[in-house]
Amino acid sequence: MSLAVSHLASSTAIESVGTPGLWAVTIIGVMGLVVLDFVLTRRPHEVSMREALGWTVFYIALPVAFGVYLWASKGSTPGVEFFTGYLLEKSLSVDNLFVFMLLLSAFAVPAALAQRVLLYGIVGALVLRAIFIALGAAALATLDWAFLLFGAILLVTAIKLIVDALGGHENEVDVSSMKSVRLLRRFMPVTDDYRGTKMTVIEKGRRALTPLALVVAAVMATDLVFAVDSVPAVYGVTGDPFLVFATNAFALLGLRALYFVLHAALARLVHLVYGLAIILAFIGVKLVLHWAHGVWSSVPTIPTLASLGVIVVVLVTVTLTSLRATRDDKATVAS
What we know:
13 helices
């Protein structure tokens, strides 16, 4: 068993491609893009499709260029790991968008404020992912059973997604029952209407929250749930904390614009949850096999390139089946 622990320790203690300089440039770049987004949303306005498409193209081109740079300067292995991790995180972030859409609808968020709510959600997700990434790296470096734990988390999550989907619970959002909302209402009064981008106002001589504060709290609470799934998932692709952070950051940064591009299409992706469940279960099995390989060397492992292939095939398949399943509904609406 000691030999197995030694093997696992050496397998997780990989040489990171994230030099101090690259870490600094990446973090500064991410912070700069977040600040830019806050500047762009300082005046509430409805986002046009042209604006959303332009920013979506930019936020897709950015990680592609970054991945090409990694491939050219660091080698094919980190390049493949980055693109695989990015595609995995992007697919999971689409599920984030679906939940955000449900929350925005449940809280009746004005269209002009939607992008500000999404931005708060993205910032919260970035902070939580950074914390979970650091904790995950520490666990993998010191605990030989961390891969087994991460794999179990993903397998349980996959089962829960399937059960919820079959029960129809993924489309239900009861604002009054949300713990974050009940907690805030217990300590502070809430105004009946939105007050622009303000989250607190003075009303009748007392500090009161606006509905915007409630929806932001709800979005950040969901961020915590998604971080628990997403970080172990990408650690199933790469053990490099820098690549884990980079894939998460690039996947999250473009969500604000992507939401408005996919808003109509999200309702048609009826099979997406099944695809995500399959992907999470696959990555969970990959992590368990990685742990088992350290204990019994005869146990095979799944290469990253194969993971990339599985993710692509599953996403393409569920997209096509979703569009086919909702084709009649779209035709009915059009008529």
